[in-house]
């Protein structure tokens, strides 16, 4: 084997081959691309939140079946996870055990916009959100990582000054000049 050059030695000095950390970068990169997540730390946060939800669910499951505290806390946890939209049905604590980072990713504003067919693709949705064309309720949202609960899904609309809203109104022959002028 040849002797390493100075620059190779310098690069290898910072690499520890004995304590190599295994990363799930392939799965992570697929999720980041699938949900059009630009900041990796958001995905890491979703992983932490899902891990904490599963941990709380497991701790509640360890309590006695007839314990009134268990019944109350499990009902609260299931209701909270359902209202956020992380579980599909109000069932049992086993559904809470299936929560993962993808569940949080599915509740992002762009993904919800695609699901309710406001936009054709996730990339377009993220672009519209960043440019300020979307509002939830009365608030204009410019962060694609905004998590939408089940109750807020009905309040996702275009902003009043949005050119997209004007084009849709023109296309549907529902253009109201008074409304579009913001008078």
From TrEMBL:
Q: Which UniProt keywords apply?
A: Nucleus, Ribonucleoprotein, Ribosome biogenesis, RNA-binding
The residue ranges of the RNA-binding S4 domain are 107-173
Record-annotated Small ribosomal subunit protein uS4 N-terminal domain positions: 3-106
Name the CDD domains on file. S4
Q: Which SMART domains match?
A: Ribosomal_S4, S4
What the entry lists under InterPro entries is as follows: Ribosomal_uS4 (IPR022801), Ribosomal_uS4_N (IPR001912), S4_RNA-bd (IPR002942), S4_RNA-bd_sf (IPR036986)
What name has this protein been given in UniProt? U3 small nucleolar ribonucleoprotein protein IMP3
Q: What lineage does UniProt assign to this protein's organism?
A: Eukaryota, Metazoa, Ecdysozoa, Arthropoda, Crustacea
